[in-house]
Design brief:
This protein is mainly alpha-helical and 269 residues long. It has one domain. It contains 13 helices and two strands; from the N terminus they run H-H-H-H-H-H-E-E-H-H-H-H-H-H-H. Helix 7 packs antiparallel against helix 13.
């Protein structure tokens, strides 16, 4: 049993912190870019809260600019209040999809978008006064208790985003069918999409049953590979950037396992 106070690594702390900061920042920058260039697919989401077509196009660049600014600030100098906002905003924008009539899986697929800033918030020290929530945060010293807490949230986020994306492929979602066609396999593209979706759900099950660094890195490679298909399908690069939480979550989880392993074996002490 490792004493709670003994689990601490400057290297592990910094790697974890910067992975989460980069993931949260890129997610908001990518999302914001779509607002600035006005993405037509966003119009139904504005309609959920009673904002019409013309007004939606008016507000998209405003919201997009704020997302980009918040993303840059989080990467450079995160603040607890900002992380709370980012978590809530990412959860809300993900929830708008099923509220607009899209499958519930769309909200789960984006679990990395709201899970990553939330984990960064858990990793941050906050004082008792309200002003401390608006001051630059400091990273907590890693303890066994904190690592376990982070692992629970990171595992949940990774599993949900895998299940969400996998379920959309099983439906199958037209965009994912077009991605499946890029493989050029001699079979129905919808069947290929369903196979890919089944693999993704299988990876989620594997992470639950056999959590390990190797599994996390396999998931990371899978997400980078499958999400990069957006580019080959002709979509803007922001589609890949916007999903940075899907890469940061399994990578951050791998870092927590590495930190626990090193301290369990007295490495780096």
């Amino acid at each position: 049993m490792i004493p709670s106070s003994a689990v601490n690594s400057g290297t592990g702390d910094r790697a974890l912190e910067w992975t989460l900061r980069a993931g949260a920042a890129l997610c908001f920058i990518g999302h914001g870019a779509f607002g600035v260039i006005t993405k037509q697919a966003w119009v139904p989401y504005f309609a959920v809260v009673g904002i019409g077509h013309d007004a939606a196009y008016h507000w998209m660049p405003v919201i997009g600019t704020l997302d980009i600014l918040f993303g840059i600030l989080t990467f450079v100098q995160p603040r607890a209040a900002l992380l709370v906002w980012m978590t809530a905003w990412a959860l809300w924008t993900a929830s708008l999809r099923p509220l607009a009539g899209e499958p519930f899986w769309e909200a789960l697929e984006r679990a990395g978008n709201y899970g990553v800033p939330f984990v960064l918030l858990l990793l941050s020290e906050t004082g008792s006064g309200w002003r401390t929530w608006f001051a630059p945060v400091r990273t907590r010293m890693l303890s066994l208790t904190l690592i376990r807490r982070l692992q629970i949230v990171l595992t949940a986020a990774t599993v949900l985003l895998l299940i969400g994306h996998g379920a959309l492929a099983l439906l199958p979602k037209p965009a994912l069918v077009s991605h499946a066609a890029l493989f050029g396999l001699p079979m129905d593209t919808e069947s290929v999409a369903r196979i890919l979706g089944s693999i993704e759900i299988g990876l989620a099950a594997l992470l639950i049953l056999r959590p390990a660094i190797t599994v996390c890195l396999i998931i990371l490679a899978w997400k980078l590979g499958t999400e990069s298909l957006f580019i080959f399908a002709g979509s803007p690069v922001w589609e890949v950037v916007e999903r940075a939480g899907s890469y940061a979550a399994p990578l951050a989880l791998a870092i927590t396992y590495s930190t626990r392993f090193r301290h369990a074996h007295g490495i780096g002490k």
